[in-house]
């Protein structure tokens, strides 16, 4: 999150989609990002790739 240009609140940006509904998220000591879902109750490691500018989903 970054502060909004007008100084009111923060800007948000979609960084991707996940194949599950996220219940919680966190990071480990090495900075790896993880998400948890409550049904069926699993822990998932999140990874990122670089998309080409203007690429559609």
UniProtKB/TrEMBL annotation:
This is Uncharacterized protein. It comes from Halosaccharopolyspora lacisalsi.
């Amino acid at each position: 999150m970054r502060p909004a240009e007008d100084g009111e609140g923060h800007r948000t940006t979609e960084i991707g989609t996940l194949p599950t509904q996220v219940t919680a998220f966190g990071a480990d000591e090495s900075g790896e990002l993880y998400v948890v879902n409550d049904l069926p109750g699993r822990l998932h490691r999140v990874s990122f790739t670089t998309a080409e500018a203007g690429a559609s989903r």
